[in-house]
């Protein structure tokens, strides 16, 4: 589909240098679709992360599909519902405010080494982005049962009725991501 593109949303303390973002970007580049892939550095401040994503959604003339990993999956759900988009969710942080409430304090980006303060106000910004009601047909859910950070069953329940791929083992990084790149691209409309 001409003009279709993917907006990749990384997780908490992550960046466009994450292995999944790089692999997906490289795969699209190899297919001649490098300009159809967006992967911004998201602010640790949730409202700023959403503002960045929404600003990118206003650019371009074709449909955008979201691919969100962990906290990026939480953001992708909110954006998908608000903007009528499709989204691939990879081990999404369905209960992000509850999970990240325990991480208030100084955090360090995994890739850049940059430190930042994650605050209770940021947790409240996350609460405002909750999507208690979802449209199941928008989503492709990819989870591994061995996720050591999140309970995959929360995602399976929250995205009930969505296309779901639940794999045994693995971990929070979604170890079998390379196997599903073609399906992600197809689901995204590219």
Outline the fold blueprint.
Layout: E1 5-9, H1 19-30, E2 37-38, H2 46-57, E3 64-69, H3 71-83, E4 87-90, H4 96-101, E5 105-108, E6 115-118, H5 120-127, E7 139-144, H6 152-158, E8 163-167, H7 177-187
Parallel strand pairs: 1-2, 1-3, 3-4, 4-7, 7-8
Antiparallel strand pairs: 5-6
Helix pairs in contact: 1-7
Which features does this protein show?
globular, six-stranded parallel sheet, 7 helices, Rossmann fold, 8 strands
Question: What do these coordinates show?
Answer:
The protein has a single domain (5-187), classed as Rossmann fold (3-Layer(aba) Sandwich), CATH 3.40.50. The strands form 2 sheets. It has a 6-stranded parallel β-sheet, sandwiched between helices. A two-stranded antiparallel ribbon has the order 5-6. The radius of gyration is 15 Å and the shape is globular. Helix 1 (19-30) packs across helix 7. It is of the alpha/beta class and 190 residues long. It is built from 7 helices and 8 strands, in the order βαβαβαβαββαβαβα.
Question: What's the quick description here?
Answer:
With 190 residues, this protein is α/β, with parallel strands linked by helices. The chain is 36% helix and 19% strand.
Low-confidence stretches: none
CATH architecture: 3-Layer(aba) Sandwich
Share of residues in helices: 25-40%
Compute the average pLDDT: 95
**Count of the domains:** 1
Strand element count: 8
Number of helices: 7
How would you name the CATH homologous superfamily? Alpha/Beta hydrolase fold, catalytic domain
Strand order of the largest sheet: 2-1-3-4-7-8
Radius of gyration, CA atoms, in whole angstroms: 15 Å
Strand content: 15-25%
CATH topology: Rossmann fold
- For the record, what CATH class applies? Alpha Beta
What is the terminal-to-terminal distance? 6 Å
What profile does the largest beta sheet have?
6 strands, parallel
Shape: globular
